[in-house]
Amino acid sequence: MTSTTVLYIILGILIADFILERFLEFLNQKKWSPNLPKALEGIYDQEKYEQSQNYQKDKLLPSLISSALGFIGTVLMIVLSGFAWVDELVRVYFEHPIAIALSFFGVIMLLSSLLGLPFSYYSTFIIEEKYGFNRTSLKTFILDKIKGGILSIVIGGGLLALLIWIYLQTTNNFWWMAWAVIAAFMIFMTMFYSSVLVPLFNKQTPLEEGDLKNAISQFASKVNFKLDNVYVMDGSKRSSKGNAYFSGLGAKKRIVLFDTLINDLSKEEIVAVLAHEIGHYKKKHTLSGIILSLLQTGLMFYIFSLIIANPLLSEAFGATQHGFHLGLIAFGILYSPISTFLGLGMNVLSRKNEYEADDYALKNYDAKALGNALKKLSVSSLSNLTPHPLYVFFYYSHPSLLQRLKALQLLK
Question: Domain CAAX prenyl protease 1 N-terminal: where (predicted)?
Answer without folding.
Answer: 34-203
